[in-house]
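Assess the record.
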Amino acid sequence: MPLIAVVVAALAIGFEQLVQWKYGPMGIIAFVALSIGIKAKNTMIGGVGAVILVMLLAQSG
């Protein structure tokens, strides 16, 4: 079980670094808002983070 937690944490950190590298500070703010919204089960914060990420993804495409 601890191995799975370490792997998941490593993937999350890797994804966070990728978002920050590609989308800058706004990407990391959106990712943090999405993470907090999911953990706190707050749909408003999670939705705001998701919308910002989608907008950033749409800009680059």
The two ends are 38 Å apart (CA to CA).
